[in-house]
Write the structure tokens for this entry.
Amino acid sequence: MPPKKPDPKAAAPPEPEEPEHEAFGQWDGERNPESLPEGKGTATYPNGDTYVGVVRNNMREEKGVYTWKEPEEGKPGGSYDGEYESNKKHGKGVMKYPDGGTYEGHWKEGMREGHGTFKYPNGDWYKGTWSGGKKSGEGTYFSYQGSCWYVGTWTDGEFKEGVWKFKDGSCYKGSFAGGRPAPGDGVFLFPNGNRQMGKWVEAKAEGDEEGKTNVLGSCWYVGTWTDGEFKEGVWKFKDGSCYKVPCFRPPLIPFTHP
């Protein structure tokens, strides 16, 4: 049984960015002939953030570590350890977010760009390409809660086309929208090698409070329903084949980060 739509309240937090500091609150390091910060050292900014690395023309350059001040005592503010260009994350680097998520990979002008891996605090992870800070191109997303993988093409942070793989070896191949199969042609492959081809459409299911559920072609869900969700039973197809469904409710791709 396909999952519910994503919670609009689960919007991604804003990308932590280093403030455009005009001057250091304190600088302990190398200086140029005019006694201005130049080279390696440690900067402590007026807001409490710190930077340990290289400074050129009063800007972060080359490699360094930027640490955000703790918003509350005992809570991390996040950190970035990597390459810089003109005060922005640029090149390779590791970002540790305040919520426990981490990104390791390439950056361009302060945004995730190129190949990189994002590990989410809930155990999920994404490995693939990025553009403008969002998943874009070829990549794989693993859902820890659903024990399933989304492998294929991403656009502007959303999974668009590829394979939805499950732990038991079954998978669905087709197009996707909003984290679920999109209406249109697709194929479901079973662990025993059988396949069901058809169109993924939306149809009303008896007992479903939301009034809609996704089905593939001509098929039936026969079994136990709870709160509008198909929990356990048999997924029967027009050709006589069937698939036993124990608590079949893989989650949508969570959007805790872009």
Observations:
- Residues 1-13, 204-217, 246-258 have pLDDT under 50 and may be disordered.
- Residues 140 and 151 are 4 Å apart (CA to CA).
- The two ends are 26 Å apart (CA to CA).
- DSSP finds no helices and 19 strands in the chain.
